[in-house]
Design a protein that fits this description.
heterodimer; A: mainly alpha; globular; B: 416 residues; alpha/beta; Coagulation Factor XIII, Chain A, domain 1; 2 domains; 6-stranded mixed beta sheet; 8 helices
Amino acid sequence: MIAVWARSLKFRDLIWQMTLRELRGRYIGSSMGLFWSVIHPLITLTVWTFVFSYILNIRFSAAGGMTDFALYLFCGMVPFLSFQETVQNCTVSITGHSSLIKNLVFASKSIHVSIALAAVITELIGLGILTLALIILRQQFPIYLPLVLPIAIILMFFSLGLGFVTSTLHVFFRDTAQLVSVLLMVWLYLTPIFYPAHVLPGHLQFLLYINPLAYVANIYRSIILVGDLPSTAGFLIFLGVSLGTFFFGYKIYTANYPKFIDEL
Amino acid sequence: MIKVVHLTKTFRVYQRPLDRIKEALSFGRKSFHTDFTALSGISLEVNRGETVGLIGPNGSGKSTLLKIMAGVMLPTRGHVIREGRVGSLIELGTGFHPEFTGRSNVYMNASLMGFSRQEIESILPEVIEFSGLGQFIDRPLKTYSSGMWVRLAFSVAISINPEILLIDEALAVGDMLFSQRCIAKIREFQSRGVSVILVSHDLSAVKTLCDRAVLLDGGRKLAEGPPEGISSYYISLMAERAASENIIARSDKAHRRYGSYQAEIESVELYNSSGQRTNVVRSGDKCVIEVAVKVSRELREPSVGILIRDRLGNEIFGTNTYLAGLKISQELKSFTVRFELDMNLGHSNYSITAAVHSGRDHLGQCYDWIDNALAFQVLPTSPEFQGCARLEPLISIVPSDPHAVVIRGAHEAPAE
């Protein structure tokens, strides 16, 4: 763990350069640039509020109020999108940067880390908008909001772990990217994001316990919308699973890295 | 110092992506790939301050060897010993993004090479200076000409002050002025004791820059020694290969052929001064181009001609039997026309187009016309010159003082 961090620190300039490029590259040439990454979630939340609360008038019995479904949805969506973005972008990162891998001796894992950091930054922007919406619509400030930060960072390790595995697989089997995007879609619908967890039928409730994203969506909601703190036991399990996934992915990646160049 | 010992590199080749999955699922019980050996048993040592050129035909393993030396690729067997910081000009401008400014790309490129932010800031003025880009450094890369792009990439690459420098054909790009600058920079590195390994198809570059040359062929080291000797060996090897290939393949779409075929061109061949069939000759060599013709029906005033074009398709020289005042007898049904000439062309690639037609040119009645029937290369000989025409001037220096001695120098190749 310490060794991995020490190495990351050594490459921090490179990682930071790549993260900036990852973020700026999306909007380069547009006049508003990075401002677009604020506009996107802002419009999404506005549209959801309009459609779900105003047109469809969906409410949950658990939590009343006009704007709740949109906030509920957004709150679960923000971490999932960060996870999805990291895994999806990592999957194609090695094949997409093949000229770097083929021509340079460098810390290729910086690519994954920069992708994950860019996703976390995007997530923070989303959280900022969510906070703004809460203040405007509910006149309340989520005081426990800073507590989602460690959750977001731990989720980043989980996403990175999977990203290391999928990017390795994609070098050898180019069907991986397609498979990953399909699986992520299925994953999204099996996670209680569009619906509350308790509506899942009894025999499917186990899905909540094997899905870290279900835990994350739930924790985000209770911290931001309700103001409840996560339980220590649940948090420790999540931490363990995420770090375990990270190291597993890291090992798979480093073990296979020497073979990459022959395949690119 | 860099040393490689008994390097072998094999690649696994799968016919279809599915084969790889099958192999992975069989857990080593079955094999669905074929092995391709790119390098076998290569050993090479390059000492401090020494420059070694790697030459060989395409696919001989030069680039693979360079990549293993750089540490980008791992060998299947054998090992590499490096003493000192390795700089590689394998592919210039790796990671360049056209939408970002030159400055931003320098930051990115240098960070990829392992520079910290402070280091980049300290080399930045030098990089901008060497690239000669000036104001353009803050404009997006997409507004650069390809020459400016290369200049920037090269400037970053050399700024790392390597102790071992690996160069792959990088000198072939860019304009002449820039090539000269690169060569000057390499000489500076040589004088500082940097070990340089140069992969090139440009034999004259290998001869001028290298202390030693290594000839690779089919992944094996064929020869190692002084650049002059190894280059000649390479040329003769290539000439031998060319001779064994059939020059006119009718099915080949690269040749454009038309005509009434009342007479057909059977072959077009190029022979060097020692009478060997070849497609590599030296500038100024006495050569023979032979066009063999077979007549099937009666022709009116037949004439056989050749046309030499440069690699851009510009016509360099053309002649035919009509223009030479030769008459081909109607009775001849099968014959060869020999064009004996001094290949007074510059160092480049050329092609020969051959035709049989009636009278002065093919515009009237054309019996057979084969576009680019034969491609050949002209290699430089000393004294070198610019351009495609070897004019062999007599050059003299005449002092303004009429009583001084006139110094003359003939522009002739020394006896070999």
